[in-house]
Fold this protein.
Amino acid sequence: MTSLDDLPIRDDLRGKSPYGAPQKVVPVALNVNENTHPIPEAVAHDIVARIAAAVIGLNRYPDREFTELRDALAGYLGHGLARDQIWAANGSNEVLQHLLQAFGGPGRSVLGFAPTYSMYSLLALGTGTRWIAAPRDDEYELSPDTAVRAIREHDPDLVLLCAPNNPTGTPLSIETIRAVADAARGVVVVDEAYHEFADPGTPSALELLPGRPRLVVSRTMSKAFAFAGARVGYLAADPAVVDALRLVRLPYHLSALTQAAALGALAHSDLMLAMVDEIRGQRERISAELGRLGFRPYRSGSNFVLFGGVDDPRAVFEALLARGVLIREIGLPNSLRVTAGTETETTAFLEAIAGFAPNRS
Ligand code: PMP
């Protein structure tokens, strides 16, 4: 049997592990921060009709510029954004990859604040960009001073700010984002994958775009929008940034089926986002209940909660899995992460975790 080590693989990929969240079929899957509510049936029917219409034309390549989709995404984001400021790809992972391909690469660096989304370092690796992990403050917070100090020290070509941060859930203040955007020499990407779950009134980095041509705000339809399986992520930035990304994308990277499906979902954005308040409520319930049980939930502006106070995370993860509840071990000491699901799923998680509570009586 040939093993990976026998292959003439790039030296910098040797011995590395791929992104590896377990994919298991379980009754309660709360491990990858999806929206666990299925798509409303009325929306599903419209999407099917649009896909059916697109199938007839699959003999031709799709609209390489996905013009209609960019218009719809600009309309969804608001903030006076126009089509030429929007880019999209197969998930925001691919959007981030395009950014690193265009602005990173050999001899360049990208800085993030660890612990943060595990794909950042892998995308850096794949594009030959040097990954710099700068530290956070206590409780995984990130103050303007701490962030700016790291940027002055390392002078990176790119900065990746995860707002709110995965896997910690930590909200990021607009003051920190502004301070980073003003201090950095390079491109500053604010990954707002979970922004829709932030407390109402939380400003988006989209507000900071005017007059800042090196600032990029990325979003996804995978989380609040309940569309992870369709693979659609997007960004808003200066039109020149979008032009740069055209240099690195593969021609026709967004299939006609993806474009049709995304347009269908965006046409019903109110219905697609209808469960966001409910999910935020379940997140608050998880934080309150975990606190009561004696765990240490961290502040979250997302659809998941990281909590400390777990004596043996591996054992608890396995025990919950045996009860059909899949959560996430993310390698932080004494901590586990759980996605806020439906009320029933959340109840299943809370009942299962109660058996491991520090305050167990
Ligand atoms: N950014 C963050 C912070 C994420 O947590 C994720 C998904 N886990 C993504 C980006 C990528 O999501 P997608 O490719 O599905 O848009």
